[in-house]
């Protein structure tokens, strides 16, 4: 038996080929037999053990339960995601909506989008008062707690902050630099994004400020700001663009050659394609 080293890139490519071989051939004979016998009217995740299952199918079902424990939907067009039944909310509790149902139980996420694939504010207005009220109360308690427990620390923090050592650098001639940032508003239920475009002579070219409805993680805020800023620049006809932002994690994901399977993966892929 021989042991030898292989490049990391080659190993990843081999893993990808094996995964495609086992999981992407939904039309082969074995897949069609399993589909016809065990889950003809649903998908694999909703399939049961069935009558007198084979050893292979029993093993797959055992693995499916373990798989489902860590799975959740990543929202794209929302056409296959049930609002109240599926795990899709980007909050690490159980990833489901926990407030009482105020829509039909079979409603899908896509039905909450408007024509621009943003959340339909008119449809959702007033529907989430219960969850917002609970959140605001928790936020008030948290603020009071920190006010009491951190007051003595703040009293010792009177020193003037150091001036930032980060300097803005102009892009090359013919290029445009766009700086973007995002911040949560309305108790985290809306995102405010801003973008500024300058040329190689440090001259101001354009700026925008936009609001995006929804609850965003810190990572999603930065990526959404980047996407909105780039779209703004392209709409104005700027194409040779240098994107600058203050979120290293978001920058690393955008520059990575690997596909992002995190919750914010759709945003990352959209930015890469722009």
Key features of this structure:
single chain, 274 residues, alpha+beta, Nucleotidyltransferase, domain 5, 3 domains, four-stranded mixed sheet, 9 helices, 4 strands, RNaseH_sf, RNase_H-like
What would you note in describing this structure?
The chain is an alpha+beta fold. It has three domains: 25-71, no CATH class; 72-146, no CATH class; 176-273, 2-Layer Sandwich (Nucleotidyltransferase, domain 5). It has nine helices and four strands; from the N terminus they run ααααααβββαβαα. The protein has helices at 8-23, 29-38, 55-68, 121-124, 129-149, 151-154, 218-235, 248-255, 265-273, and strands at residues 176-185, 190-199, 204-213, 241-244. It has a four-stranded mixed β-sheet, covered by helices on one side. Helix 7 packs parallel to helix 9 and helix 8 (248-255) crosses helix 9. It starts with 7 loop residues before the first helix and ends with a helix. The model is unreliable at 129-137 and 146-159 (pLDDT under 50).
């Amino acid at each position: 038996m021989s042991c030898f080293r292989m490049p990391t890139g080659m190993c990843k490519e081999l893993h990808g080929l094996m995964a495609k071989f086992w999981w992407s051939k939904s039309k082969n004979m074995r897949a069609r037999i399993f589909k016809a016998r065990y889950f003809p009217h649903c998908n694999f995740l909703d399939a049961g053990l069935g009558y007198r299952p084979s050893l292979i199918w029993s093993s797959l079902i055992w693995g499916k339960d373990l798989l489902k424990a860590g799975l959740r939907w990543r929202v794209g067009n929302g056409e296959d995601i049930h609002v109240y039944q599926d795990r899709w909310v980007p909050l690490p509790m159980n990833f489901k909506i926990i407030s009482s149902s105020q829509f039909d139980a079979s409603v899908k996420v896509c039905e909450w989008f408007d024509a621009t694939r943003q959340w339909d504010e008119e449809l959702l207005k007033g529907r989430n008062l219960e969850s917002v009220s609970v959140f605001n109360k928790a936020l008030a308690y948290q603020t009071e707690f920190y006010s009491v427990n951190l007051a003595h620390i703040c009293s010792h923090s009177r020193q003037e902050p150091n001036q930032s050592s980060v300097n803005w650098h102009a892009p090359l001639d013919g290029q445009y630099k766009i700086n973007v940032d995002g911040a949560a508003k309305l108790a985290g239920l809306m995102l405010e994004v801003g973008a500024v475009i300058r040329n190689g002579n440090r001259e101001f070219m354009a700026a925008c400020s936009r609001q995006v409805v929804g609850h965003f993680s810190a990572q999603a805020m930065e990526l959404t700001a980047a996407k909105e800023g780039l779209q703004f620049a392209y709409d104005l006809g700027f194409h040779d663009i240098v994107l600058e932002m203050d979120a290293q994690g978001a920058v690393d994901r955008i520059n990575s050659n690997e596909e992002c399977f995190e919750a914010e993966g759709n945003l990352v892929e959209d930015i890469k394609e722009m």
